Amino acid sequence: IYTNLDTVMLGFLKDNTEVGYYNAAIKLKYILLSLVSSLGQVLLPRMSYFVQSNKMQDFLQTMKKSLNFTLAISIPITVFFVIYSFEAMMFLAGDGYVSAVSAMMVITVAIIPNGLTGILGTQVLTSIEREKYVLYSVIVGAVTDFILNLFFIPIMGATGAALATVVCEFVVLFMQIYFCRDL
Fold it and tell me: What is the pTM of this model?
């Protein structure tokens, strides 16, 4: 939702060049996020089984391992690609996209909250039949992204859209943490 919203708003508030820079920046994010979030898709049936079988201790232990695994992968990946964003952008898109490096540095940070919300939203809230809270968090995130884009895009272009996305991913994460607080 956020990426599509960002792209549309960039097109309206800036120009196609900024949309191109943003799309170049998010390509790497998608690749890295698929590595980080793959665990969430695999564990959903297991987590649902634990809940249905009333094995909450196993459920909580698996949740903790998933969160630790996601953090152990997402933080080093994020740090590495923030530090080497220039080289990664030159490798992925070429010299014409030097202006996309700052957007890539910012959007790469979204891997951490996005990976964690994959665990909390997909594995935890869905397994314990609190899907409506996932929807609430995503709606608030989308509204946050829209409002922040109105301020950031005119000033910072693609980097502003990336910053709005990072902030809204953290908003979604904090909401989902709140909805999981009893666990």
Answer: 0.91
